[in-house]
Write a structure and sequence with these properties.
The protein has a 3-stranded antiparallel β-sheet, sandwiched between helices. It is built from 4 helices and 3 strands. By secondary structure, it is α+β, with helices and mostly antiparallel strands. The chain is globular, with a radius of gyration of 12 Å. Strand 1 (3-10) and strand 2 (15-20) form a beta hairpin.
Length: 87
């Protein structure tokens, strides 16, 4: 079973990082205002980063790593991901 770590870009330019077993369902909950308090306050705009893991523990560990990054480092992670997806 796969688990995903994702980063949402919010309308105020901030990032929200989370993990989920069902990405589509989780992102939809964020969009409907039923997700985390952070995204209820800042309204998610789009998914800008996703990583897939084979266990919940690995996904949670990576989520914590990303959450500990500064905004600038998250931005670089997102930019690197964009470049690798377009090549």
């Amino acid at each position: 079973m796969s688990y995903y770590v994702y980063i949402l870009l919010c309308k105020d330019g901030s990032y929200y990082t989370g993990y989920a077993k069902d990405m589509k369902r989780r992102v939809e909950r964020h969009r409907k205002g039923q997700g985390a308090r952070y995204t209820r306050m800042r309204e998610p705009e789009k998914v800008v980063y996703v990583e897939e893991f084979d266990s919940r523990g690995k996904a949670m560990k990576r989520e914590r790593e990303i959450k500990s990054l500064s905004h600038g480092k998250k931005q670089r992670l997102v930019n690197l991901h964009d470049k690798s997806c377009t090549q």
